[in-house]
Specification:
This protein is mostly beta strands. The chain contains no helices and 11 strands. The strands form 2 sheets. Strands 2, 4, 5, 6, 9, 10 and 11 form a 7-stranded mixed β-sheet that branches. The chain has a 4-stranded antiparallel β-sheet with strand order 1-3-8-7, with no helix packed on it. Strand 4 and strand 5 form a beta hairpin. It is globular.
Length: 124
């Protein structure tokens, strides 16, 4: 069972995109969620996370102040609003559910339900 990320695309530097993550099977509906990204040749890195209630959010320093994570539990979706995009934000973006709490929330090994992700490309 996987989470489906969508909303990626090609955007100019300084532009905005809104990514969405859907859990159509509601398998991970009561879990905290995270967004990660992976650029070619690089490791998957933490971007943002949100708890189940939606009242606690966490961000990588590189995106703080530019990205906003939110969730709508009624619709079973998690969103990532990205603004002020930079070429270094170019990557495949993934959402996942946090299933292991003994591992740091920034570690992708704490998460499950990885889908294929959605590609974000920022041109300079």
């Amino acid at each position: 069972v996987q989470l489906q990320a969508s909303g990626g695309g090609l955007v100019q530097a300084g532009g905005s995109l809104r990514l969405s993550c859907a859990d159509s099977g509601r398998t991970f509906s009561s879990y905290a969620k995270g967004w990660f990204r992976q650029a070619p040749g690089k490791e998957r890195e933490f971007v943002a996370a949100i708890n189940w209630e939606g009242d606690s959010t966490y961000y990588a320093d590189s995106v703080k102040g530019r990205f906003t994570i939110s969730r709508d539990n009624a619709k079973n979706t998690v969103s990532l609003q990205m603004s002020g995009l930079k070429p270094e934000d170019t990557a495949n973006y993934y959402c996942a559910a946090r299933t292991l709490y003994q591992i740091d929330y920034r570690n992708p090994n704490a998460y499950a339900g990885w889908g294929q992700g959605t590609q974000v490309t920022v041109s300079s």
